[in-house]
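Record format v2
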Amino acid sequence: MTKSELIEIMAREQSHLAYRDVELAVKCMIEQMSQTLASGERIEIRGFGSFSLHFRPPRMGRNPKTGDAVALAGKHVPHFKPGKELRERVNDKFAELQEA
Amino acid sequence: MALTKAEMAERLFEELGLNKREAKDMVEMFFEEIREALVNGQQVKLSGFGNFDLREKKQRPGRNPKTGEEIPISARRVVTFRPGQKLKARVEAYAGSREQ
């Protein structure tokens, strides 16, 4: 499912809103989530999961073309931990299909 | 403070002029539709943010950490998140405290 497919589904379910409003809302939510992580803050959505930053310490890397060693600075990377409800629903459905 | 659904709804109310009810429903539906897709075994791609992928894990040996008793960890399906280039670049620039 892509972002535009998600917007379509949501617009169909909220027929009292214009498609354009749903589209703007989805973009606004994604932007707010990105901004939050970019400012070093966590996101906590109960039943869905939490996003946080993990730190990758500085390391020596290599230029793949020349083979020269290059010092790489430490950096933060986004991390997602699925929440209980998401974990259970995804896996229950999977278990159900496996038994069938 | 972490970003929550309440704050996301507040932003939709302020920026898009949705009423409080619509804003709350919108946020709720956004996460629910992503969850639904994942439960149904569908990958979710939010361009500019990242992809939620599904991985199937085989059964593996495990242990009850309290008793030390061996119990197999059943085969399962899990959700993983792969941040997109744009989000990674924005987060990498975050130079704040390493404590998250």
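Chain B has a mean pLDDT of 92.
Chain B touches chain A through 61 residues (CB under 8 Å).
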